[in-house]
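Workshop exercise sheet. Pairs work together: one partner reads the sequence aloud, the other fills in the structure field after running the prediction. Swap roles for the next sheet.
Pair: D.N. / O.F.
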Amino acid sequence: MTGPLQGVRVLELGTLIAGPFCGKTLGDFGAEVIKVEPPGEGDPLRRWRRLRNGVSLWWQVQSRNKKSVTADLRKPEGQEIVRRLARNCDIVIENFRPGALEKWNLGWDVLSRDNPKLILVRISGYGQTGPYRARPGFAAIAEAFGGLRHVTGFPDRAPVRPNLSIGDTIASLHGVIGALLALHHLKNGGTGQVIDVALYEAVFNCMESLLPEYDAQGFVRERSGSALPGIAPSNIYPCSDGNWVLIAANADSLYQRLMGAIGRTDLRDDPALARNDGRAAQMQRIDEAIAAWTAQRTQGDVLDAMVRAEVPAGTIYSVAEIARDPHYAARGMLLDTLASDGKPLKQPGIVPKLSASPGAIRAAAPGLGEHTDEILASVGYSAPQITALRAARII
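Structure field:
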């Protein structure tokens, strides 16, 4: 139940999504994560989206396995709290606009002077350098600036966004990767360092061949709806019961099996369609053949046929279907927990799965400032000092 990061201490200074998701992931695998929040209100995520007993259900997931400490970073006494905590931490995570830490006397030069082995993960919209560094940047902006929005949606409609802050999550995972790389660097005798993660760069890093296609051939990838141009066949197809099925048979052997399963040996044996480049040139012809076959069968019949043919296929799940799926349950992805209000709550499981040192949910999301006294005492604050800080509304 301890996890591979047992003994690693993380100080989380960020709010909302990108920084805290990075902290959540480290905490899932055993790191002690100390989350610093503004006194009185705390992280705004506590009240985002749907609430139960006045607390966000999202908060219960994002802040599991964390300890909450309150400190006003705008005041010198609050800044001193962070400096003391950082001296005793391995990793600090922040996702403020570049320059904010420096304004609060908490920049890299200050924190690393007291702790040369410190790893500082900095997540921001545009990064810590460059002409746009000072611009505010949320996930939605990064997804657009990083190229994702331009290729998302249908060609005859405006670009759309996924109903998630996916840019924040992608950037957070890059932050986790950077922190783990930096820990390994320390293990090899190196020093502490800054991990500079820009939201847009994390998105851009996932954009496959977008740039080389443009550079070499002037090709601009556009929106393509449910199809994947250049990779065939991979699309959604209608069924006779009004449902849809997604079939992805873009490997050569998969294509052969699919065409055999739907009785189109003419397409299976056509030499022009033997490889993906040939199929990509005739995507419409192939998609029409598959759709004609699926439209005469129910979704269940189509899926059964694809299983027998060993062709990747599936339905488009809503969360209601996810919550009752036996495979999700068997893989530990629907965890029954007790939330901070004491009520049962299903939460997403731990990813990835480690065989020898798996992650775990060890504690529910904390109440605001729940661990302030405990953590401040651990870095040398006396009980009268903590009382005085609370009276002055520093914590």
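Discussion prompt: The first strand starts at residue 9 and ends at 12. What would you look at next?
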